[in-house]
Amino acid sequence: MFMDLLREGGPVCWVIVACGLFAFGVFIERGLHLHRARIKYDDFLKGIFNILGRNNIQEAIAICEETPGPVAYLVKTAILHRDDPKDVIRNAVDDASLAEISRMERRLVVIATVAQIAPLLGLLGTVLAMVQGLIVLQQQAKLIQSVDIMGLLSQALICTAAGLTVAIPCYAAFNLLVVKIDRLVLDMERAKSELVGFLTGAMSGSSESDLNDKA
Length: 215
Hints:
The chain is mainly α and 215 residues long. It contains 8 helices and no strands. Helix 7 (108-139) runs antiparallel to helix 8.
């Protein structure tokens, strides 16, 4: 049944289906990536802070490298800049955050593009079918059969339906991924604040202890 509809829809219908399958593949890949990237950042930070409190820097970096997701990458970046001033730490973490957001948004434009062009492709197929129908009417005005007209009308409607069928799920998939990314960005912002505060507090605490030792 489905293959019969595709054949009746013509070449434009096949293009629409190909675009939809490609967008579906991107959605699955991005969805799995974002699912793996989200962790319980508060528990993760508590563990890292405990490790840093024992001055086990290499262990903390190793845990960050083994943990997936943007929060772990931000923590690693901050640890590597732990001896720098607060502004430098914040700038380094902000740059890493922007890089992670760009990485999370990778290939989302494919889904958005398919959602936009699928109805247009359906309209194109509809127009082409109707133009073809007009040509048939002009060439065979006296010998035209209803079967010919119904076939072209069916092709036009199938193309329109195919475009909408692909576009609607793509819109939903795109919005779903955007929501997942927004949640990750919120986790990153919260983690940045706690992380910079902890590192700068640890630095000031170590500086005071050094001064007390010298005194």
